[in-house]
Design goal:
The protein has two domains: 63 residues, no CATH class; 41 residues, no CATH class. The chain is built from one helix and eleven strands; from the N terminus they run αβββββββββββ. It has a three-stranded antiparallel beta sheet, covered by helices on one side. The protein has a two-stranded antiparallel sheet with strand order 4-11.
Length: 116
Amino acid sequence: MSPRSASAYAIAANSETLTVQGGTFLGLPAVVSASAGARVAMVDAGQLMVADSGELTFDVTRHASVEMYRTAASPPTASTVLVNLWMHGLVGLKCERTINYKIKSSAAIYTVQSYL
């Protein structure tokens, strides 16, 4: 849930264990993230299957051009500014980790809070 939802639930239930940074709500762990928006999701972690080999793949390059903005243009436009790593003496690193998961459809529910 979002910090705003956590605050509303904490006030409504007079909860001392739920804050805008997380905690517990009705005895269940609450994870707070601003990216949740108005959604509140509840997941039965016991119904979640995760396959993780623990392997990481690293790639290194000096010969690439990258866009150096937090919100990259997708797709790139004529005004997209690219930085050439070689010309600036920079190195590009990429790390990948593959994790697969499967969750039963009845193991998760979510709602969208429209009254907050």
